[in-house]
Amino acid sequence: MKTVKEIMSTDCVTAALQDNIYELAVKMKQHDIGFIPIVEGKKLIGVVTDRDLVIRGYAAKHSGSTSVEEVITRDVESITSDTTTDEAAGIMAAKQIRRLPVVDNGELIGVLAIGDLAVREIFVNEAGEALSAISEHEHAAVH
User: Fold this and answer.
1) Which residues contact 2 (CB under 8 A, 6 or more apart)?
2) Distance CA 87, CA 51 (A)
3) Domain count of the chain?
4) CBS domain: from which residue to which, for each copy (predicted)?
5) Read out DSSP for the chain?
6) What is the model's pLDDT at position 122?
7) Which residue has the higher pLDDT, 131 or 35?
């Protein structure tokens, strides 16, 4: 059975609490990403998404110099590198999330995105079901 260690991204773009929301927005643009793990050293302490920047940052009238602390999500679902790909897909579907930080011994070692499951044609059905469930949930939230 495949584990997430075999398909996760290990070249993660990260940031620290000292960074501000403008710096995170620039990193997202430069790397074409919408998700940045926030770390102290290698320890995962939370994440910031592009949506966090918009909703908790700019729409709340915070300036670009506002601390990451104002927009961070601290209670983050994560997995270990020995999690199976089908377990990860199940978590993504159940929790309505597209990305999971991979943490071993308290340290961030990678990120598993829903696309990692689908693009590599591993458990494509589970990835498709997870994405479908996430999309349905997002669609329902709009109405």
Assistant:
1) 84, 85, 122, 123
2) 26
3) 1
4) 8-64, 72-129
5) --BGGGTSB-S---B-TTSBHHHHHHHHHHHT-SEEEEEETTEEEEEEEHHHIIIIIGGGT--TTSBGGGT-B-S---B-TTSBHHHHHHHHHHHT-SEEEEEETTEEEEEEEHHHHHHTTSSHHHHHHHHHHHHHHHHHHH-
6) 47
7) 35
Q: Using CB atoms within 10 A of its CB, is residue 90 exposed (0-12), middle (13-18) or buried (19+)?
A: middle
List the structure tokens of 21: 């929301």
CATH at residue 26: 3.10.580.10
Whose CA is closest to 90, among 141, 139, 125, 140?
125
pTM: 0.80
- Put the strands of the sheet holding 35-40 in their side by side order: 35-40, 43-49, 107-113, 99-104
First to last CA, the chain: 39
CA distance 110 to 37: 10
